[in-house]
Specification:
Blueprint (H helix, E strand, L loop, with lengths): L1 H30 L6 E7 L1 H5 L5 H4 L5 E7 L6 H9 L9 H8 L7 E4 L10 H17 L4 E4 L6 H6 L3 H19 L3 E2 L1 H5 L22 H19 L12 H4 L2
Parallel strand pairs: 1-2, 1-3, 3-4, 4-5
Helix pairs in contact: 1-5, 4-6
């Protein structure tokens, strides 16, 4: 009987929190009548986490933007895409994080960036392509712009340790650029920003933390600028943002 009473008490607290959070969230939304920054949501893994995107608008600087990286530690980003499209609602989970989200709901995305990592290569490229197409359709059905990112390459030494990795991810990147061009979507070309000159398109060793895969702060400083430039070129012709300095007619080309 005592155990049942304890469970009923817990459920009552949760129910109260959900109800209170719903009222709080509703009042916040009604009170938000002013303009808000463009929120960028990148769905990726380790490189996305290392980027520390929450601080990017200050570092870049990129006034008019807020940003975050949602971690999905496998190629399949289905769950992360679905949860992004639910916002500001969240999937129910009996965790402190969920209860916190009731009072501090996650921000709705204004643009979604889909990014994959070199860890998933070599892999089944046809499955990868079908997955990207599916997620793009889902996000567009949610009335959100989509940006595809190319995969950051690996260094020459890392590629030698994993035959087929570099070649496979470069083939995927070529497909990403072509598919995005066909669909009229912008591309965040991380490969182009991070690769060394010459044959092979390997990651520059000066951007490597030492494992041939992950990026150092010098690399992220370059990517800060690339993200800023790419976003403004993509969004200025669609939804003007604060500090937009790209002509709409140029951005639409």
């Amino acid at each position: 009987m005592m155990r049942m009473t304890s469970w009923l008490g817990t459920l009552a607290v949760i129910a109260f929190c959900i109800a209170a959070g719903t009222i709080y969230r509703s009042s916040k939304l009604k009170g938000n009548t002013g303009s808000k920054p463009t929120h960028v949501t990148l769905i990726g893994a380790s490189i996305g986490q290392g980027w520390q995107l929450a601080d990017w608008p200050t570092r870049a600087p990129a006034p008019g933007f807020t940003a975050e990286a949602i971690a999905a530690w496998q190629f399949d980003k289905t769950e992360a895409v679905e949860e992004t499209l639910m916002r500001p609602a969240t999937k129910f989970r009996l965790t402190r994080t969920y209860l916190k989200s009731i009072f501090q709901p996650p921000p709705k995305a204004d643009i979604v960036i889909l990014k994959e990592c070199s860890a998933y290569f070599p892999g089944n490229l046809e499955v990868y392509k079908d997955s990207i197409r599916k997620w793009v359709r889902q996000i567009q059905a949610g009335k959100l712009p989509v940006m595809l990112a190319t995969v950051v390459p690996v260094t020459r030494a890392r590629a030698a340790q994993a035959p087929g990795k570099q070649e496979s991810l470069l083939e995927y990147n070529r497909w990403v650029r072509g598919y995005a061009r066909e669909q009229g979507m912008p591309v965040l070309d991380l490969e182009a920003a991070m690769r060394e000159e010459g044959e092979g398109s390997y990651l520059r060793e000066s951007f490597d933390i030492g494992d041939g895969t992950h990026l150092n702060r010098a690399a992220y400083a370059v990517l800060d600028t690339v993200l800023n430039t790419t976003l403004r070129a993509a969004l200025c012709g669609i939804t003007p943002v604060a500090g937009c300095d790209v002509e709409p007619e140029r951005a639409a080309r």
